[in-house]
Amino acid sequence: MNSILKATFLCTATALASVAHAQAGVQTSSDVPSQTAADTEAYPSQVSDPAAGAGAPQGAASVADASQPASESGGDIVVTARRRNENLQDVPASVSVLGEKQLEATGARMVLNFVELTPGVAMQVGATEPGDASINIRGLNGARDAENNVALVIDGVLRTNAVATTQPQGDITQVEIIKGPQGALYGRNASAGAIVMTTRKPTDYLSGQVKASAANDDTYLVSGLLSGPISDQIGFTVNAEYSTSDGFYRNSFLQSPVNQQVYPGNSRNAASIDSYEKFYAFGRLLIRPNEDTEIDVKANYGSQTASSINYNAVFHLPALAAAFSTPLFNLPISDHKFLFTNNTEAQSWQKSYGGSIRFNQRLDFGSLIGFAAYSNIKSDFIGGGTSGAFGFFANEPTCIRTRAATAPQVTGVPNQEPFTTYYNVFGYAQPYSPSTCDGIQYNDRRQKDVVTELRLVSPENGSPLSWQLGSSYIFIDRRVCINLTLDTGQSASRQCYTTDPRFPTESLVDDNFKTNVYALFGSSEYKATDKLTLGLALRYDIEARNTSNNVPVNARTRWVGNARTGFPTGTATTPANYYLNPGLDPAYNPSGILAPRSKTFRQLQPKLSLTYKANPDTTLFANWGIGFKAGGFNNAGTEAIVNGYFNAPVSAGGINAGLTVSDVFKKEVDSAYEAGIKGRIWNNIRYELVGYYTNVKDMQFFEFFVGEFGLLRSVSNIDKVRIYGAEASLNYEVIPGYNVYASGNYTNSRIQKNSSRPYTVGNKSPNTPDYTLNFGANMDQPIAASLNFVGRVDARITGPTPYHTVQDNDVPTIFGLSGNYKNSTRRAYTIVDVRAGVKADRWTITAFASNLFNKEYINDDVVAPEFGGDFVAPGNLRRYGVEALFKF
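^ that's the sequence the OP posted. Answer follows.
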């Protein structure tokens, strides 16, 4: 099968070259296959806000190339959800759309901003480091360290790295969020949906814009864009942005005099919790050698430095809370008060670059469309560890000295609770502490990928049957390492393995992952009557994966040991001499090696759809589809660590945890049904009502373990999850230029089988809010000649959210006490954003406030059940400032 697919790619490429050669002499023209939306707008959907838009020629389903959507005209919103331009009213799916005017009115720039405006979608981003992200759509969660579950498509080109969802993507003119399995249309890892973005195409005259904003916490952004023609056949767009902020939170230890007394020369940068400095640049050439050919060339570069690991620890040990008569040992995560006192300045670095070339060649019998793209993203970070609780370095001289010198009773600098009130009892166990006893963790993640696709699309000739056929190939090369080092108060290493005596490696996971993806796909749609349209899409994926390990086999530790297998923790005179990875320990792995592994995953992804146009203003629709995420490999040694440290009997040093976490995790497959009605009333009211039902097999889920081995990030499988829910929206144009809207989602989920943790059956799907509600208003009204008042209010209510499969369950912990995770569910909270300003033809000045009422909430919670608690990160606080935009 692989040979057939490769042959298909070569044959199609040869055909393309022939076509390009044959067309070389055709007369040029400015008429092109696709229509720009740069100066127009689509409503932000039946599921978002519908501010009125400027008119443009109507073009529902009028062109084959859907990399650039047409605009809305006369109330008809044109989208590219199914890889061709068509009226949103005719799409048999729930699609949330933000047009250019909504993007400007809301200030939305990033995927996180779009998600916050869309019910039924939630996103965690940036707590571990800026590129760490996961998206949940209707109960389908994106597991960290697994593949993304949402396809990100920029100008018709797929981005495979989940980090890209955290980055700017240029000057965006339209965003579409399509919910439910989209693998048949968009390929791999679109099991929960797809996010489709369109950026500004070159204009046929010189134009541009400059934007600048300033806000509290020394937060600044400057961006610029220039666009225009180079010749009659070539246009360009270049844009760049620079942003910086000190963030919302501070490290109270680094800014204290004690820091310099205990660690002379150590960083004093208190703004090292959620600060950032970013630069991104984008370039685009659009080449139209003739009326039948369009070539789109893009390049991008990004660089950022930021903070990392902005977590505190929260315990869930009811017995300890009862023993000390305090809730501090069994605290609801939403009640936690954040304090950051780590002696290490937590830092992260990210560099990315890439490019793509995409073509659309119109033929007599259709259009040939293809692209090739390259991406290279490198992310790494350093931060405090969690080793203090396990006494790794309890005998190390720097740990002994700094633990005494940084005690809150001595310094007057409090730690997060309960490590101040109960410091004498539990202070040694604090993660991310001001002493060196918790070590330093270094994490390096880098990925290079090549994505290619070729497809043949039927002509738009009025036929009731439309179709497309294609193939794709993707290559991904990724390396992941986690290095726990000794902390001697002398900075940290940015290497995956080091013998430097200042910060030698004491625990290590380090693997290379290579993936080859081959796919064939096709889709067709048949207009059976004037009212009824039927659709079928089909895709077959083959994903071949292999991994190899980089941990030095003969290296040994100085301090970290494993008393279970005869290697006590090191002392001042006796090294531990343990393996850097417990997976090399013959007690767990008799071979003593971490051998290369390989596995191939295959899946057929069909999608059926039905559209019934009851009348010009009312559409009934239904669809069913299969979504697929390939399985993969945990870091080598994962299974050995879980079995040796947690599943072993108490007599052997374990806790009888009863966990199943394998070195290989299974593919995830979901079967999703959706049905709904959408329409408009009196031309100024839009509505949508949708119901959905999904069965998930082997849902991939992120598990986090800490123990004497250090840190372990892994992916497990939840055998069966059932999800159902409903969404509704209503948006009303009260008068031209003044709109109000409301939309909401309710999701009911249940774990039906979970071999990884059998006692969690009956619990909810993790990371899934029970409900989300969005509502607000938008105004754009004249107040003088050529001067308008613009204002916007957006509110979002996010319902209770469990973060793990373990919820109201009792779990054995490494401390010999049972943990219960009822309090790991985040409470419902409300965020309100406002913007107001004045707008002229070429400039706009806007005052803004996000999180207007300064609501404190949890952004992320990494639950470690066998540790007896969670690692929680705070959400953004109030941000207020002024923004100015000038266009020319």
